[in-house]
Please model this.
Amino acid sequence: MSSTYITEQNGKKMLMVGEKPFIMLAGEVHNSNSSSVEYMEQVYDKADALGLNSLLIPVTWELVEPKEGEFDFSLVDGLIAQAKRRGKKLGLLWFGAWKNAQCYYAPEWVKTDLERFKRAQVEKGKNFIRRQDFYGMPYTTLSYLCEETKQADARAFSALMRHIREIDCESQTVITVQVENETGLMASAREHSDEADTLFSSKVPQEFVIYMKLHTDTMVPDVKQAVENGAAEGTWEEVFGDCAGEIFSAYYTAAYVNTVAAAGKKEYSLPMTANCWLDKGGAPGTYPTGGPVSRMMEVWSYCAPEIDVIAPDIYVQNFLEICDEYTRRNTPLFIPECATHSYAGPREVYCIGHYHALCYSPFGFEDMGEPFSATQSYLFGVDVEDPALKTPMDVEEYRWYTRTLHEMMPLLAEKYGTSDLQAVSCERKEEDKMLFGTFGFQIALDSPVVARKDGVCLILKESEDTFYLLIHAGAFGYFSTDADRPNVDVLSFEEGHFEQGAWMMERRLNGDEVVNTMYQEPTLLKIRLFAYR
Ligand code: DGJ
Model:
């Protein structure tokens, strides 16, 4: 039995590790680094420098099962022992049939047997194409319809999970597992093999049609319209109209992932996630189609109940809108990949304080603070007029944010799902007030005297009159919301830090320091207020 699971608290999901709440202040390693335990030592040094409490690391099908039925877990053993020794929790990323909508990590015996392990036919009769929509890039991937691939993938994943249970059940170093990586099909809304065509022109399973028709409330507008206007039964096109191709792909992709996840959970039931390469508003085929994009969430909920959380990889500039989109169905926020530019720290704070996130994890944290590579510049938005997007996150500052949140974890976790934990962000300056019963706080993150434009403020209400404020690059004021007691005094004001949930005062503040509440450096404060007439 695992004491790591997802539970519900105050109507929101919470990750429990060893029966205690745990917030993953994580980082995802570059794809190839966890292929060597030795190489990972320097990666852990960086993780320590950033104050991370957990790492997301790939475990790949090709290395776990180099020959069919012959498993080699020596690398997995080494990685888990190392994480334990270095005091970190792990989220494993199962790079099985899918990696970024392709099949890079399928073992040789899968890649070379095209008869048994069928490729997706993006165009009829073709196992391989050059993407005309993307610089002629070569493209191939395994078919989501191939039963042999699904069963082989599921067998490998279940062997992995069994092994993890055997070696790690007691210490619970591995706390989450991502099933596949960025599933979906590029360059077409659906596959076009004869088998795919036959299935596409046959009747949609009726139970699924009923489910979709009953869940239109949460759907994105065009999917909702297609489902509402579609026939009550019939072929995919009759039932789902313009969205038929994408829903077909999502149905079979999610069902595939669910089979793999179920096989793994049967051996060892850890929280399982599916990450997502976002769609950016383009047509199906311009993003991995059939993957768990927000527009396909209802399909994934139906077809993949073994997946506990759908986790968006967010590199785009409208980060907060994506977080909103992935939480609006009352689903928890779990970010396995995001950018390492200078919003990385403020966003971490905001994700915990505002969304009560289960996991926040910049991708390729190994090079946080260093000049961006060409790929990073492209992903992070070099073409956007915002200097913060072009500036690497400062390592010391990130460490401060992460360590502070980690040490506050017992308090934060207790307040998850309540309005006693709130935050405001420089990326949403219009939301500049936080209300907590008798008292409210006004936050200024765009003051001309603060040079930085990447400010953030998180406030935790400990009791009716006592608050902790984490603030950077901004100023705050406080007020009473009680018309009968409109005046407010400060009873005490302290600067300090937390150690394992306990407040450690560093300085008692008064005089000028109470008048001037403008913070150029990341600061943690404790304040007690008094309202009177
Ligand atoms: C998203 C993928 O999920 C990661 O594994 C990695 O390839 C990044 N993209 C690259 O930036």
The radius of gyration is 24 Å. The first helix runs from residue 37 to 50.
